[in-house]
Amino acid sequence: MGINFQYTVRGLGKLLQKEGKKMYNNYPNYYPQVQQPRPQMTGLRGRPVSSLDEVRATSIDFDGSIFFFPDMANKRIYTKQINLDGTAAISMYELKNLPIEPTAIGANYVTREEFDETLKKIHSMLDSLAGQQVPVQQAPPPSQEPEFKF
């Protein structure tokens, strides 16, 4: 005579539900957890290589997908894929450091000396104009009553 474990757990579960949710939440779960299958991520296809000859010798799929072969020692990345006519196309990308050139002083930039010189010229012009009376136009006084035109 064995104990039917399934019925015992169900009966115990009903009893605990009657006692309250607090006790039921502490009750261990005897049902197995079902895990959802994860979709597989397809990354870049290829592998690290040490030379172009190694890329040429590596066999790839015939579906036309691109395979990437980084060459870290030579700072290059090779790609290889099968063309529609069945030949293998290999491309090479090479990392080249750009030379850092000092910014050239062109027409859009002003040096500090040029700025100071121009500022002195403006001050001297303002000083020479300060001695002369320059007529200033004054705005007419506003009227007290606003005029509305319809």
SSE map:
Elements: H1 5-19, H2 21-26, E1 45-46, H3 52-57, E2 67-71, E3 76-82, E4 88-94, H4 112-131
Parallel strand pairs: 1-2
Antiparallel strand pairs: 2-3, 3-4
Residue fraction in strands: 5-15%
What topology, given as strand order, has the largest sheet? 1-2-3-4
Radius of gyration: 42 Å
Spatial shape: flat
Give the fraction of residues assigned to helices: 25-40%
CA-to-CA gap between the ends? 107 Å
- DSSP strand count: 4
Largest sheet: 4 strands, mixed
Offer a quick outline of the entry.
The protein is an alpha+beta fold.
Can you walk me through this structure?
This protein has helices at residues 5-19, 21-26, 52-57, 112-131, and strands at 45-46, 67-71, 76-82, 88-94. It is an alpha+beta fold and 150 residues long. A four-stranded mixed sheet has the order 1-2-3-4. The radius of gyration is 42 Å and the shape is flat. Helices cover 31% and strands 14% of the residues. The chain has a domain at 45-94. It contains four helices and four strands, in the order H-H-E-H-E-E-E-H.
Properties at a glance:
150 residues; alpha+beta; four-stranded mixed beta sheet
